Amino acid sequence: MKRLWKYITPCYSDVFGFLSVINHSDGFAIVDDSSKYKNRHKHNYNYFDSLLCDQRNVSTHIKESDVICGTKEKVLEAYRNSPEIADAEFLILTSSPCSSMINTDYQEICDLLQSELSIPVGYVLLDGQKDYLYGISSCLELMGKMLLVPKEKSSNGVNILGCNLIDFQSDEISEIEYFLQNAGFNVLSKWGCLESVDNLKEAVAASVNLVINVSGLKIAEYMKREFGIPYVVGCPVDQYNKNIIIDKLKSKNNDLTFSLKRNNDDKMIVIVGEQVLSNSIRESFINKGFSNIIVCSFFEMDKTLMKDGDIKLNSEDELIKVLDNDSVFLVCGEDDISELCNKSVFYLSLPNTMKVLSENFVYFKDIENELSKVGEV
Amino acid sequence: MNRKNKFDIRDLLISSPNSQLLFVGALNCIRHRGTQMVQLMKEGRLAFLCPSSSDFSTGRYLKQIVDAIVELSEERNTKDFTLMYGCQLALLSTDFDFIVSELKDNYSINVVIHNHCRLCDSKDRREI
User: What is the spatial distance between Cα A54 and Cα A32, in angstroms, rounded to a whole number?
Assistant: First the structure.
Protein backbone atom coordinates (compact mmCIF):
# COMPACT_ATOMS: atom_id res chain seq x y z
CA MET A 1 0.00 0.00 0.00
CA LYS A 2 1.23 3.46 -0.91
CA ARG A 3 2.73 5.47 1.97
CA LEU A 4 2.65 2.49 4.33
CA TRP A 5 6.08 1.51 5.67
CA LYS A 6 6.19 -2.01 7.04
CA TYR A 7 9.80 -3.08 6.51
CA ILE A 8 11.90 -0.12 5.44
CA THR A 9 12.49 2.30 8.27
CA PRO A 10 11.61 5.89 7.42
CA CYS A 11 14.25 8.48 6.63
CA TYR A 12 14.71 11.83 8.30
CA SER A 13 12.24 14.55 7.32
CA ASP A 14 12.71 17.72 5.31
CA VAL A 15 12.87 19.81 8.50
CA PHE A 16 15.80 17.70 9.76
CA GLY A 17 17.57 18.15 6.43
CA PHE A 18 16.99 21.89 6.61
CA LEU A 19 18.39 22.03 10.15
CA SER A 20 21.43 19.97 9.21
CA VAL A 21 22.40 22.82 6.88
CA ILE A 22 21.48 25.67 9.22
CA ASN A 23 23.26 24.18 12.24
CA HIS A 24 26.51 24.10 10.26
CA SER A 25 26.17 27.57 8.82
CA ASP A 26 26.58 31.13 10.07
CA GLY A 27 22.83 31.58 9.83
CA PHE A 28 19.98 30.99 12.23
CA ALA A 29 16.52 29.45 11.85
CA ILE A 30 13.14 29.84 13.50
CA VAL A 31 11.12 26.63 13.17
CA ASP A 32 7.38 27.18 13.52
CA ASP A 33 6.70 24.02 15.49
CA SER A 34 5.36 22.84 18.81
CA SER A 35 8.65 21.79 20.39
CA LYS A 36 12.37 22.32 20.10
CA TYR A 37 14.52 20.08 17.93
CA LYS A 38 16.91 18.63 20.46
CA ASN A 39 19.93 16.44 20.14
CA ARG A 40 18.32 13.29 21.44
CA HIS A 41 19.96 10.89 19.05
CA LYS A 42 22.16 8.88 21.37
CA HIS A 43 22.63 5.93 19.07
CA ASN A 44 26.02 5.09 17.71
CA TYR A 45 25.79 7.06 14.52
CA ASN A 46 28.57 9.33 15.61
CA TYR A 47 28.39 11.95 12.96
CA PHE A 48 24.69 12.38 13.24
CA ASP A 49 25.31 13.36 16.84
CA SER A 50 27.53 16.12 15.58
CA LEU A 51 24.86 17.04 13.10
CA LEU A 52 22.57 18.33 15.77
CA CYS A 53 25.07 19.38 18.39
CA ASP A 54 25.32 23.04 17.45
CA GLN A 55 21.75 24.23 17.65
CA ARG A 56 21.39 27.34 15.52
CA ASN A 57 17.62 27.27 15.64
CA VAL A 58 14.71 27.93 17.95
CA SER A 59 11.16 26.66 17.97
CA THR A 60 8.09 28.87 18.24
CA HIS A 61 6.48 26.36 20.65
CA ILE A 62 3.06 26.78 19.10
CA LYS A 63 -0.02 25.26 20.66
CA GLU A 64 -3.37 24.22 19.25
CA SER A 65 -4.85 27.69 19.73
CA ASP A 66 -1.99 29.28 17.78
CA VAL A 67 -2.66 27.04 14.83
CA ILE A 68 -6.28 28.18 14.92
CA CYS A 69 -5.58 31.89 15.45
CA GLY A 70 -2.33 32.15 13.49
CA THR A 71 1.30 31.65 14.42
CA LYS A 72 2.64 35.08 13.48
CA GLU A 73 2.89 36.35 17.06
CA LYS A 74 4.69 33.19 18.18
CA VAL A 75 7.25 33.56 15.39
CA LEU A 76 7.87 37.18 16.38
CA GLU A 77 8.10 36.18 20.04
CA ALA A 78 10.70 33.51 19.18
CA TYR A 79 12.66 36.17 17.29
CA ARG A 80 12.57 38.61 20.21
CA ASN A 81 13.67 35.86 22.62
CA SER A 82 16.65 34.81 20.50
CA PRO A 83 19.65 37.08 21.10
CA GLU A 84 21.75 34.68 18.96
CA ILE A 85 20.16 36.18 15.85
CA ALA A 86 22.18 39.34 16.39
CA ASP A 87 25.36 37.41 15.51
CA ALA A 88 23.86 35.46 12.60
CA GLU A 89 24.65 36.22 8.96
CA PHE A 90 21.14 35.38 7.78
CA LEU A 91 17.80 34.29 9.20
CA ILE A 92 15.46 31.68 7.73
CA LEU A 93 11.97 30.85 8.92
CA THR A 94 10.42 27.50 8.22
CA SER A 95 7.13 25.76 8.81
CA SER A 96 6.50 22.28 10.23
CA PRO A 97 3.72 19.67 9.92
CA CYS A 98 1.25 21.53 12.12
CA SER A 99 1.98 25.12 11.07
CA SER A 100 2.07 24.20 7.37
CA MET A 101 -1.58 23.19 7.59
CA ILE A 102 -2.75 26.79 8.05
CA ASN A 103 -0.48 28.51 5.52
CA THR A 104 0.97 31.19 7.78
CA ASP A 105 1.99 34.25 5.76
CA TYR A 106 5.75 33.97 6.32
CA GLN A 107 6.45 36.61 3.66
CA GLU A 108 4.65 39.18 5.82
CA ILE A 109 6.71 38.13 8.85
CA CYS A 110 9.93 38.24 6.81
CA ASP A 111 9.11 41.75 5.59
CA LEU A 112 8.52 42.82 9.17
CA LEU A 113 11.78 41.29 10.41
CA GLN A 114 13.73 42.58 7.42
CA SER A 115 12.80 46.13 8.42
CA GLU A 116 14.45 45.54 11.80
CA LEU A 117 17.46 43.50 10.72
CA SER A 118 20.41 44.28 8.49
CA ILE A 119 20.90 40.62 7.54
CA PRO A 120 18.95 38.76 4.82
CA VAL A 121 15.71 37.19 6.02
CA GLY A 122 13.83 34.51 4.10
CA TYR A 123 11.61 31.47 4.52
CA VAL A 124 11.16 27.97 3.18
CA LEU A 125 7.86 26.13 3.33
CA LEU A 126 8.35 22.62 4.70
CA ASP A 127 5.69 20.27 5.96
CA GLY A 128 7.79 17.58 7.64
CA GLN A 129 6.33 15.02 5.26
CA LYS A 130 9.03 15.02 2.60
CA ASP A 131 12.50 13.50 2.82
CA TYR A 132 15.56 15.25 4.22
CA LEU A 133 17.02 15.87 0.76
CA TYR A 134 14.09 18.13 -0.08
CA GLY A 135 14.75 20.21 3.05
CA ILE A 136 18.46 20.49 2.26
CA SER A 137 17.92 21.49 -1.36
CA SER A 138 15.23 24.06 -0.45
CA CYS A 139 17.51 25.58 2.19
CA LEU A 140 20.54 25.74 -0.12
CA GLU A 141 18.51 27.35 -2.90
CA LEU A 142 17.21 30.04 -0.55
CA MET A 143 20.71 30.67 0.83
CA GLY A 144 21.90 31.15 -2.75
CA LYS A 145 19.13 33.62 -3.46
CA MET A 146 19.88 35.56 -0.26
CA LEU A 147 23.67 35.60 -0.38
CA LEU A 148 24.93 35.56 -3.96
CA VAL A 149 25.70 38.59 -6.10
CA PRO A 150 27.68 38.66 -9.40
CA LYS A 151 31.47 38.51 -9.16
CA GLU A 152 34.48 38.25 -11.41
CA LYS A 153 35.13 34.66 -12.56
CA SER A 154 38.02 32.47 -11.51
CA SER A 155 39.07 30.15 -14.33
CA ASN A 156 39.70 27.11 -12.12
CA GLY A 157 37.15 27.88 -9.41
CA VAL A 158 34.66 25.15 -8.51
CA ASN A 159 31.95 24.75 -5.87
CA ILE A 160 30.87 21.43 -4.36
CA LEU A 161 27.09 21.38 -4.11
CA GLY A 162 24.95 19.06 -2.01
CA CYS A 163 27.72 17.85 0.31
CA ASN A 164 25.32 17.52 3.22
CA LEU A 165 26.32 16.11 6.58
CA ILE A 166 23.63 13.46 6.60
CA ASP A 167 24.93 11.60 3.55
CA PHE A 168 28.61 12.46 3.99
CA GLN A 169 31.01 12.78 6.87
CA SER A 170 33.21 15.86 7.18
CA ASP A 171 36.39 13.94 6.38
CA GLU A 172 34.77 12.45 3.27
CA ILE A 173 33.92 15.94 2.03
CA SER A 174 37.50 17.02 2.75
CA GLU A 175 38.71 14.09 0.63
CA ILE A 176 36.52 15.20 -2.28
CA GLU A 177 37.88 18.71 -1.89
CA TYR A 178 41.43 17.36 -1.85
CA PHE A 179 40.80 15.27 -4.96
CA LEU A 180 39.57 18.37 -6.84
CA GLN A 181 42.53 20.43 -5.67
CA ASN A 182 44.91 17.71 -6.89
CA ALA A 183 43.26 17.93 -10.29
CA GLY A 184 44.04 21.65 -10.44
CA PHE A 185 40.76 23.10 -9.25
CA ASN A 186 40.30 25.72 -6.59
CA VAL A 187 37.36 24.82 -4.34
CA LEU A 188 35.69 28.13 -3.55
CA SER A 189 32.82 26.87 -1.44
CA LYS A 190 31.00 23.78 -0.21
CA TRP A 191 27.22 23.89 -0.02
CA GLY A 192 25.53 21.69 2.59
CA CYS A 193 28.24 21.25 5.20
CA LEU A 194 30.17 23.44 7.61
CA GLU A 195 31.01 26.55 5.59
CA SER A 196 31.34 30.28 6.25
CA VAL A 197 29.09 32.82 4.59
CA ASP A 198 32.20 34.59 3.26
CA ASN A 199 33.16 31.43 1.34
CA LEU A 200 29.60 30.88 0.13
CA LYS A 201 29.57 34.41 -1.29
CA GLU A 202 32.70 33.54 -3.28
CA ALA A 203 30.78 30.79 -5.07
CA VAL A 204 29.71 33.09 -7.89
CA ALA A 205 33.32 33.35 -9.05
CA ALA A 206 33.36 29.65 -9.97
CA SER A 207 33.64 28.60 -13.59
CA VAL A 208 31.83 25.31 -12.97
CA ASN A 209 29.92 23.56 -10.18
CA LEU A 210 30.11 19.94 -9.08
CA VAL A 211 26.84 18.45 -7.81
CA ILE A 212 27.59 15.35 -5.72
CA ASN A 213 24.11 14.77 -4.31
CA VAL A 214 20.58 15.38 -5.54
CA SER A 215 20.18 18.01 -2.79
CA GLY A 216 22.62 20.23 -4.72
CA LEU A 217 20.64 20.31 -7.95
CA LYS A 218 18.32 23.22 -7.08
CA ILE A 219 21.16 25.57 -6.14
CA ALA A 220 23.10 24.40 -9.21
CA GLU A 221 20.15 25.26 -11.45
CA TYR A 222 19.83 28.64 -9.72
CA MET A 223 23.52 29.48 -10.22
CA LYS A 224 23.31 28.39 -13.85
CA ARG A 225 20.21 30.47 -14.48
CA GLU A 226 21.31 33.62 -12.63
CA PHE A 227 25.09 33.62 -13.03
CA GLY A 228 25.70 31.36 -16.02
CA ILE A 229 27.72 28.80 -14.06
CA PRO A 230 27.43 25.36 -15.70
CA TYR A 231 27.31 22.29 -13.53
CA VAL A 232 28.48 18.71 -13.63
CA VAL A 233 26.65 15.93 -11.78
CA GLY A 234 28.55 13.00 -10.33
CA CYS A 235 29.68 11.42 -7.11
CA PRO A 236 33.35 10.35 -6.88
CA VAL A 237 32.65 6.87 -5.54
CA ASP A 238 35.70 5.28 -7.17
CA GLN A 239 38.67 6.12 -9.39
CA TYR A 240 36.68 5.54 -12.56
CA ASN A 241 34.05 8.08 -11.52
CA LYS A 242 36.73 10.51 -10.36
CA ASN A 243 38.25 10.43 -13.85
CA ILE A 244 34.86 11.01 -15.46
CA ILE A 245 34.13 13.92 -13.12
CA ILE A 246 37.45 15.60 -13.85
CA ASP A 247 36.89 15.22 -17.61
CA LYS A 248 33.42 16.71 -17.29
CA LEU A 249 34.61 19.58 -15.09
CA LYS A 250 37.44 20.47 -17.49
CA SER A 251 35.11 20.43 -20.49
CA LYS A 252 32.29 22.01 -18.44
CA ASN A 253 30.04 19.47 -20.09
CA ASN A 254 27.65 17.29 -18.12
CA ASP A 255 26.63 15.05 -21.02
CA LEU A 256 26.44 11.49 -19.83
CA THR A 257 29.37 9.53 -21.15
CA PHE A 258 27.63 6.20 -21.36
CA SER A 259 24.69 4.72 -23.17
CA LEU A 260 22.79 1.74 -21.89
CA LYS A 261 22.06 -1.06 -24.29
CA ARG A 262 19.15 -2.78 -22.68
CA ASN A 263 18.86 -6.47 -23.31
CA ASN A 264 16.04 -8.36 -21.67
CA ASP A 265 18.10 -11.53 -21.57
CA ASP A 266 20.77 -9.88 -19.47
CA LYS A 267 20.93 -10.34 -15.77
CA MET A 268 19.75 -7.17 -14.10
CA ILE A 269 21.43 -5.00 -11.47
CA VAL A 270 19.12 -2.91 -9.27
CA ILE A 271 20.55 0.09 -7.41
CA VAL A 272 18.27 1.56 -4.75
CA GLY A 273 19.29 4.89 -3.30
CA GLU A 274 19.95 8.59 -3.75
CA GLN A 275 20.01 9.33 -7.47
CA VAL A 276 23.40 10.98 -8.03
CA LEU A 277 25.25 8.37 -5.97
CA SER A 278 23.31 5.56 -7.65
CA ASN A 279 24.02 6.92 -11.14
CA SER A 280 27.73 7.04 -10.36
CA ILE A 281 27.63 3.44 -9.13
CA ARG A 282 25.85 2.53 -12.36
CA GLU A 283 28.68 4.08 -14.37
CA SER A 284 31.14 1.90 -12.46
CA PHE A 285 29.15 -1.22 -13.33
CA ILE A 286 28.98 -0.18 -16.98
CA ASN A 287 32.75 0.21 -16.90
CA LYS A 288 32.91 -3.37 -15.64
CA GLY A 289 30.90 -4.55 -18.64
CA PHE A 290 27.38 -4.78 -17.21
CA SER A 291 24.56 -3.30 -19.25
CA ASN A 292 21.18 -4.01 -17.68
CA ILE A 293 21.17 -1.69 -14.69
CA ILE A 294 18.30 0.30 -13.22
CA VAL A 295 18.25 2.95 -10.50
CA CYS A 296 15.30 3.14 -8.11
CA SER A 297 14.79 5.72 -5.40
CA PHE A 298 12.25 6.66 -2.77
CA PHE A 299 13.77 10.14 -2.82
CA GLU A 300 13.18 12.82 -5.41
CA MET A 301 14.59 11.99 -8.83
CA ASP A 302 15.57 14.46 -11.53
CA LYS A 303 14.01 13.37 -14.82
CA THR A 304 17.01 14.53 -16.86
CA LEU A 305 19.23 12.18 -14.86
CA MET A 306 16.93 9.18 -15.25
CA LYS A 307 17.60 6.47 -17.83
CA ASP A 308 15.13 4.05 -19.40
CA GLY A 309 13.90 1.66 -16.75
CA ASP A 310 14.70 3.89 -13.77
CA ILE A 311 11.87 4.07 -11.26
CA LYS A 312 10.80 6.74 -8.78
CA LEU A 313 9.45 4.52 -6.00
CA ASN A 314 6.31 5.45 -4.10
CA SER A 315 5.82 2.40 -1.95
CA GLU A 316 7.50 -0.70 -0.58
CA ASP A 317 5.20 -2.77 -2.81
CA GLU A 318 6.69 -1.19 -5.93
CA LEU A 319 10.20 -2.04 -4.78
CA ILE A 320 9.22 -5.61 -3.90
CA LYS A 321 7.79 -5.98 -7.42
CA VAL A 322 11.08 -4.82 -8.95
CA LEU A 323 13.14 -7.11 -6.72
CA ASP A 324 10.90 -10.10 -7.47
CA ASN A 325 11.98 -10.00 -11.12
CA ASP A 326 13.78 -13.29 -11.86
CA SER A 327 16.46 -11.55 -13.90
CA VAL A 328 17.73 -9.55 -10.87
CA PHE A 329 21.07 -11.00 -9.77
CA LEU A 330 22.64 -8.08 -7.89
CA VAL A 331 21.02 -5.47 -5.66
CA CYS A 332 22.76 -2.44 -4.19
CA GLY A 333 21.02 -0.64 -1.36
CA GLU A 334 20.98 0.05 2.32
CA ASP A 335 20.47 -2.76 4.80
CA ASP A 336 16.69 -2.68 5.23
CA ILE A 337 16.26 -3.43 1.55
CA SER A 338 18.28 -6.63 1.74
CA GLU A 339 15.43 -8.14 3.78
CA LEU A 340 13.12 -7.67 0.80
CA CYS A 341 15.44 -9.46 -1.64
CA ASN A 342 15.35 -13.03 -2.78
CA LYS A 343 18.03 -14.92 -0.85
CA SER A 344 19.72 -16.03 -4.06
CA VAL A 345 20.70 -12.52 -5.22
CA PHE A 346 24.02 -10.89 -4.47
CA TYR A 347 23.79 -7.85 -2.24
CA LEU A 348 26.06 -4.83 -1.95
CA SER A 349 25.51 -2.51 0.99
CA LEU A 350 25.23 1.21 0.37
CA PRO A 351 25.35 3.92 3.05
CA ASN A 352 22.33 3.90 5.31
CA THR A 353 22.95 7.35 6.61
CA MET A 354 19.42 8.60 6.23
CA LYS A 355 17.96 6.24 8.76
CA VAL A 356 16.75 7.03 12.23
CA LEU A 357 18.40 3.85 13.49
CA SER A 358 20.80 1.57 11.71
CA GLU A 359 22.71 -1.38 13.03
CA ASN A 360 25.32 -1.88 10.33
CA PHE A 361 27.05 1.22 9.17
CA VAL A 362 28.32 1.67 5.67
CA TYR A 363 29.91 5.00 4.88
CA PHE A 364 30.39 6.78 1.59
CA LYS A 365 34.11 5.98 1.67
CA ASP A 366 33.27 2.25 1.90
CA ILE A 367 31.53 2.16 -1.46
CA GLU A 368 34.70 1.73 -3.53
CA ASN A 369 35.55 -1.34 -1.47
CA GLU A 370 32.03 -2.70 -1.96
CA LEU A 371 32.21 -2.14 -5.72
CA SER A 372 35.54 -3.93 -5.92
CA LYS A 373 33.74 -7.11 -4.83
CA VAL A 374 32.06 -7.23 -8.23
CA GLY A 375 34.32 -8.48 -10.98
CA GLU A 376 34.30 -7.46 -14.63
CA VAL A 377 32.28 -9.29 -17.27
CA MET B 1 7.25 2.10 32.08
CA ASN B 2 11.00 2.23 31.93
CA ARG B 3 13.18 2.80 34.97
CA LYS B 4 13.07 6.59 34.63
CA ASN B 5 9.28 6.33 34.73
CA LYS B 6 9.09 7.95 31.33
CA PHE B 7 6.80 6.86 28.58
CA ASP B 8 8.00 4.03 26.37
CA ILE B 9 5.89 3.21 23.33
CA ARG B 10 6.62 -0.46 23.94
CA ASP B 11 4.30 -0.16 26.95
CA LEU B 12 1.41 0.23 24.54
CA LEU B 13 1.93 -3.33 23.33
CA ILE B 14 2.28 -5.04 26.69
CA SER B 15 -1.41 -5.87 27.13
CA SER B 16 -1.51 -8.09 24.06
CA PRO B 17 1.60 -9.99 22.94
CA ASN B 18 0.33 -10.19 19.37
CA SER B 19 -0.81 -6.59 19.01
CA GLN B 20 0.49 -4.15 16.44
CA LEU B 21 1.19 -0.44 16.56
CA LEU B 22 0.39 1.86 13.64
CA PHE B 23 1.79 5.36 13.70
CA VAL B 24 0.02 7.82 11.38
CA GLY B 25 1.66 11.17 10.79
CA ALA B 26 4.52 13.03 9.20
CA LEU B 27 8.09 11.78 8.86
CA ASN B 28 8.95 14.70 11.10
CA CYS B 29 7.12 13.12 14.05
CA ILE B 30 9.70 10.33 14.17
CA ARG B 31 11.95 12.71 16.10
CA HIS B 32 9.80 11.81 19.10
CA ARG B 33 10.82 8.33 20.29
CA GLY B 34 12.15 7.53 16.83
CA THR B 35 14.67 5.01 18.05
CA GLN B 36 12.02 3.07 19.96
CA MET B 37 9.71 3.17 16.96
CA VAL B 38 12.32 1.85 14.58
CA GLN B 39 13.30 -0.94 16.97
CA LEU B 40 9.67 -2.02 17.16
CA MET B 41 9.44 -1.83 13.38
CA LYS B 42 12.40 -4.17 13.01
CA GLU B 43 10.68 -6.57 15.39
CA GLY B 44 7.61 -6.51 13.12
CA ARG B 45 5.40 -4.84 15.73
CA LEU B 46 5.05 -1.37 14.24
CA ALA B 47 4.35 0.24 10.87
CA PHE B 48 4.29 3.84 9.71
CA LEU B 49 1.61 5.43 7.58
CA CYS B 50 2.73 8.80 6.25
CA PRO B 51 -0.13 10.44 4.32
CA SER B 52 0.64 13.41 2.06
CA SER B 53 -0.72 16.94 2.45
CA SER B 54 -3.34 16.21 -0.19
CA ASP B 55 -4.34 13.03 1.65
CA PHE B 56 -5.03 15.14 4.71
CA SER B 57 -6.78 17.97 2.90
CA THR B 58 -9.09 15.63 0.99
CA GLY B 59 -9.82 13.36 3.94
CA ARG B 60 -8.32 10.43 2.04
CA TYR B 61 -6.19 9.62 5.07
CA LEU B 62 -9.25 8.18 6.86
CA LYS B 63 -9.59 5.43 4.28
CA GLN B 64 -5.81 4.96 4.21
CA ILE B 65 -5.80 4.25 7.94
CA VAL B 66 -8.52 1.63 7.61
CA ASP B 67 -6.84 0.04 4.57
CA ALA B 68 -3.44 -0.01 6.29
CA ILE B 69 -4.78 -1.71 9.41
CA VAL B 70 -6.68 -4.29 7.35
CA GLU B 71 -3.56 -5.02 5.30
CA LEU B 72 -1.39 -5.37 8.40
CA SER B 73 -4.02 -7.51 10.09
CA GLU B 74 -4.03 -9.98 7.21
CA GLU B 75 -0.25 -10.07 6.79
CA ARG B 76 0.65 -10.26 10.45
CA ASN B 77 -2.32 -12.33 11.55
CA THR B 78 -3.54 -10.15 14.37
CA LYS B 79 -6.77 -8.40 15.28
CA ASP B 80 -5.38 -6.07 17.95
CA PHE B 81 -4.02 -2.66 17.07
CA THR B 82 -2.98 0.54 18.78
CA LEU B 83 -3.13 3.70 16.71
CA MET B 84 -0.77 6.60 17.44
CA TYR B 85 -1.06 9.82 15.50
CA GLY B 86 0.65 13.11 14.76
CA CYS B 87 -0.64 16.64 15.10
CA GLN B 88 -2.29 16.81 11.68
CA LEU B 89 -4.91 14.29 12.72
CA ALA B 90 -5.58 16.19 15.91
CA LEU B 91 -5.91 19.51 14.09
CA LEU B 92 -8.36 17.99 11.65
CA SER B 93 -10.52 16.78 14.55
CA THR B 94 -10.32 13.26 13.20
CA ASP B 95 -13.29 11.12 14.11
CA PHE B 96 -11.43 8.22 15.67
CA ASP B 97 -14.67 6.63 16.86
CA PHE B 98 -15.63 6.20 13.22
CA ILE B 99 -12.34 4.46 12.44
CA VAL B 100 -12.64 2.19 15.48
CA SER B 101 -16.22 1.18 14.70
CA GLU B 102 -15.51 0.72 10.98
CA LEU B 103 -12.72 -1.73 11.74
CA LYS B 104 -14.63 -3.48 14.51
CA ASP B 105 -17.88 -3.88 12.59
CA ASN B 106 -16.50 -4.80 9.19
CA TYR B 107 -13.27 -6.63 10.00
CA SER B 108 -13.55 -7.61 13.70
CA ILE B 109 -10.35 -5.69 14.37
CA ASN B 110 -9.91 -4.04 17.77
CA VAL B 111 -8.23 -0.65 17.71
CA VAL B 112 -7.14 1.35 20.73
CA ILE B 113 -6.44 5.03 20.14
CA HIS B 114 -3.45 6.45 21.99
CA ASN B 115 -3.87 10.18 22.58
CA HIS B 116 -0.49 11.77 22.95
CA CYS B 117 -0.52 14.91 20.82
CA ARG B 118 2.12 17.35 22.01
CA LEU B 119 0.66 20.24 20.08
CA CYS B 120 -2.82 19.88 21.54
CA ASP B 121 -1.60 19.06 25.02
CA SER B 122 -4.27 16.38 25.32
CA LYS B 123 -5.29 15.03 28.71
CA ASP B 124 -3.70 11.68 28.03
CA ARG B 125 -0.45 13.25 26.99
CA ARG B 126 2.62 11.77 28.48
CA GLU B 127 6.24 12.71 28.06
CA ILE B 128 7.08 11.93 24.43
Answer: 19
